[in-house]
Design goal:
Helix content: 40-55%
Number of domains: 3
Largest sheet: 6 strands, antiparallel
Distance between the termini: 53 Å
Radius of gyration: 51 Å
Strand content: 15-25%
Shape: rod-shaped
CATH architecture of the largest domain: 2-Layer Sandwich
CATH topology of the largest domain: Beta-Lactamase
CATH class of the largest domain: Alpha Beta
Structural class: alpha+beta
Number of helices: 9
């Protein structure tokens, strides 16, 4: 059975069930019909005999009443015999040549000429002293044969209908399994070629298998994006690490072969130190990204005074960056929320330092923090270089930088900050959005619930 296809197994299963149900129904119908015919026949023959018996009562004459009786009704043959069992009125059914037996008030079945009959006898004493026998006889074989013929016809019809239903069901199941076959073929092709861009593409449908196929396509899309991001991540990380390593090697070679003074050695060592610091920061952020992907970063949600925390971050950022652009603050006091202090601090730092990094020829950076209706909103606005509309969806990708010319030691940017910001926002059940116009500046807005579900 296991070697058969699911389509065939399902077809065989419901065909067997239909056969069992049909057999049970036909058997019940046949039994019910036979019992009904038997009961109806018994009733007819006994009622016919009893009717004539009642009419005999009260008659003193013998010949005239007997002739007036109705001796055939609804298939029941009525015969009247005298005391010596001689037939004086009525007709023996065709095909019966045997002599009858008589038994008073006895309803019985007998066979004559291969046919089955119901017989009922009654002994009658009339007022003038005469004795008569009244016999009722009716054939039941004809009606039972009709029931048998109907049963045979029903069996043939049932077999035809079951075969039609089985064939139709197999066709329907086969068509229903087309998406499953498409899934199998697609999975096989992907396994052989490694091409995750392939899709089942069977369109929209209302049944569960179509939903499964579309879900499978969505899963393939996510896998493809994940693998592409992984390859891009590996490529970008390798590139970012290769640059400082190359600088370190070249400075070491210069110091070893060309440096003649302490100043030359010191200059080379300063360059090595900067590049080593850059590598250290990149490795640290890569480790953080890895933990983010594996959800292994331990979070500690607590009641955090965001107003105080943001003021401290703003003071620190003003000291670090020597740009003349003022950091304007619009911080609502005593704004608190359930948050991870370290992660929220990282989010504040990344967004503010990102504004400093891309301020360009601008002269303003504004920081806003407010709480309304249980929602905390933090935004950073600058009037710097801005971001082109086509680049906005890409800024959350790892290692993506709007202006590649700014990837210098001066700004020490590696394109990981905004991807971390997005993850931190989602970790707090919040959202991060951006509005920007090239040459006019950008506004990054982070919103989160005051009471985090994570907490």
């Amino acid at each position: 059975m296991k070697r058969l296809s699911i389509k065939l197994r399902v077809t065989i299963w419901y065909t067997v069930v239909m056969i069992i149900i049909s057999a049970a129904v036909l058997f019940a119908m046949d039994s019910f019909s036979r019992n009904m015919i038997e009961n109806n026949t018994e009733r007819k023959v006994t009622q016919a005999v009893e009717e004539i018996s009642r009419r005999f009562a009260g008659f003193g004459e013998r010949v005239r009443p007997i002739r007036d009786f109705e001796l055939y009704n609804q298939g029941v043959y009525m015969m009247i015999y005298d005391r010596d069992k001689n037939l004086i009125n009525g007709m023996v059914p065709f095909g019966i040549s045997d002599e009858f037996e008589f038994s008073n008030d006895s309803l019985r079945t007998t066979e004559y000429g291969g046919s089955r009959y119901y017989e009922y006898d009654r002994e009658i004493h009339v007022p003038n002293g005469e004795l008569f026998w009244i016999k009722g006889i009716v054939s039941i074989s004809d009606e039972l044969d009709a029931v048998g013929a109907a049963a045979r016809n029903n069996i043939i019809l049932s077999v035809i209908l079951i075969l039609i239903a089985a064939a139709g069901g197999y066709i329907i199941i086969s068509r229903a399994f087309i998406p499953v076959e498409a899934i199998r073929k697609t999975a096989e092709e992907i396994s052989e070629s490694g091409d995750l861009s392939r899709r089942i593409g069977i369109g929209n449908g209302k049944d569960e298998i179509y939903a499964l196929a579309n879900t499978f396509d969505e899963m393939l899309g996510k896998l493809e994006r994940s693998f592409n991001q992984e390859k891009q991540f590996t490529s970008d990380a390798s590139h970012e690490l290769r640059t400082p390593v190359s600088v370190i090697l070249s400075e070491c070679e210069y110091a070893e072969e060309c440096a003649e003074t302490i100043g030359d050695y010191k200059e080379s060592m300063d360059s090595v130190k900067r590049q080593a610091g850059r590598m250290s920061k990149l490795i640290s952020e890569l480790l953080t990204i890895s933990r983010m992907d594996k959800n292994t970063i331990q979070t500690n949600f607590e009641d955090v005074d965001l107003s105080e925390l943001l003021s401290f971050v703003c003071d620190e950022q003003e000291e670090i960056h020597d740009k003349p652009a003022p950091l304007l603050r619009n911080i609502q006091p005593n704004v608190t929320a359930d948050a991870d202090r370290l992660l929220i601090t990282r989010l504040f730092i990344n967004l503010i330092s990102n504004a400093y990094q891309y301020i360009g020829g601008g002269d303003k950076i504004s920081v806003t923090l407010a709480e309304e209706n249980g929602t905390v909103t933090f935004s950073v606005e600058d009037n710097g270089i801005g971001i082109a509309e086509e680049n906005l969806p890409k800024i959350w990708d790892r290692f993506y930088q709007v202006d590649s010319s700014r990837t210098t030691d001066a700004n020490n940017s590696m394109g990981l900050g905004l991807s971390m910001v997005k993850w931190i926002a989602e970790c707090h059940g919040g959202t991060i959005t951006v509005k920007s116009e090239l040459g006019k500046g950008s506004v990054f807005t982070f919103s989160m619930p005051k009471t985090s579900k994570q907490h």
